Amino acid sequence: MNAPFRPSLTKIRLADPGDRGALARFVSEAENATPFHRPEWLEAVTRATGHPAHVLLAEREGAIAALLPLHAAHSPLFGRALVSTGFAVGGGLLGDPDAARDLFAAATELARRLTCPTVEVRGGVMPADAAWHIKRDSHAGFVAPLAADDEAQLTWIPRKQRAEVRKGLANALDVRVGREAQDRDWHYAVYAESVRNLGTPVFPRALFEAVMDAFGADADILTVLHEGRAVASVLSLYHRGAVMPYWGGGVHAARSLRANDVMYYALMCHARRRGCDRFDFGRSKTDTGAYHFKRNWGFEPQPLSYAVWSADGAPPRDVNPLSPRYKAKIALWQKLPLGVANRVGPFIARGLA
């Protein structure tokens, strides 16, 4: 039987503001769409950081057949890059793979026009052009189905990790879920301290605020409190039945209290009650502490693909915190007073899109 006839692509172009409705509909219907393809994400990143959003469209007979969302990240410390998409763990080309060659060619041309020496694509269809470097083993994603009830969810967790959760549940910990000013204050304070302790600068608070405001009911914050003090907190995104704990962490006391363990278990139960059936633990760099932490929870790693293009003679930007060039800087950052780190960090982290 002959394959059904499909008209060829008629146009590759940049989306304009009048395309927003069509973009939102396309993303809502596309099979492999992520939260990072949504116009809400693109607009939130731009509003919070100033990195302009550019969406390349492939059209067929006047309708969107595929798209490639991009942010033009610019930083005096880390240089310039077109990223699909900013501050995201996914994104990339969405839609008809037949459009890949033309869309990726358009992306490199756009990068040249914007004087961005690098294009980074996170997930989705990968370029076939030899000019792109494809990485298939640097990151892994972790997704698993949610259990039928709270007890089944606890039983699903492997024995050793389940014991840590039970220890945490035995402590005097309270869990709050919300979207209000208090929830946002708790989350930012905990997250800022957490990443300082890891040696990395905190993202601007405006980014968290913009994402919360843009996603509405599709984002919330779960905070674990001990004696009224927030000790662990996570900002989560909800997309097509999956919960994604996206920005989370704990203060120093969280470790002995097992507050992070309680936080993720509580989020699993909360997400199921609000109708989710999957827990998306996000990505981690292969063979890191976070990678093994997620495996200990019973999640199986799934390799993720990333693509990087660099203009002739230009080295790709290096924003990998595991890079040897950052080892001394990370050690120094961990020693900074929290107040100093919180003032300086957002300026630096804005360029880590």
From TrEMBL:
All residue ranges annotated as the BioF2-like acetyltransferase domain in the record: 159-295
Source superkingdom: Bacteria
PANTHER family according to UniProt: LIPID II:GLYCINE GLYCYLTRANSFERASE
Lineage: Bacteria, Pseudomonadati, Pseudomonadota, Alphaproteobacteria, Sphingomonadales
InterPro entries cross-referenced by the UniProt entry: Acyl_CoA_acyltransferase, BioF2-like_GNAT_dom, PEP-CTERM_FemAB-rel, PG_Glycine_Bridge_Synth
The protein, known as: Peptidoglycan bridge formation protein FemAB
